[in-house]
Amino acid sequence: MSLQEKRGLVCPSYKKMSVYRQCKVIELPRSSYYFKPKGESLFNLQVMSAIDRKFLDCPFYGVERMTDYLRQDLGYFIGQKRVRRLYKLMNLKTI
Known about the structure:
Layout: H1 3-9, H2 19-25, H3 30-34, H4 42-57, H5 63-72, H6 80-90
Helix pairs in contact: 5-6
Protein name: Transposase
Pfam family, one: HTH_21
Domain HTH-like: 47-94
């Protein structure tokens, strides 16, 4: 059973069994039940916008070239790992 399915099984309004016990029965850590994922930071959104604009002009730019462009031309302090993660998140593939 996936984590999402287990989270859906827990009902906080159920009075006969606490959230703690419900989580214990279905073997779901309470931290996983209460976890709220954060969205992307403002900086990452700005970088993604810059990547998107440049990628439309140069779809052959890979991660290394895009990182160089962001650093040298736009002045962003950014590493290849972040650019690679954003490429994956944006589902971009070079041609």
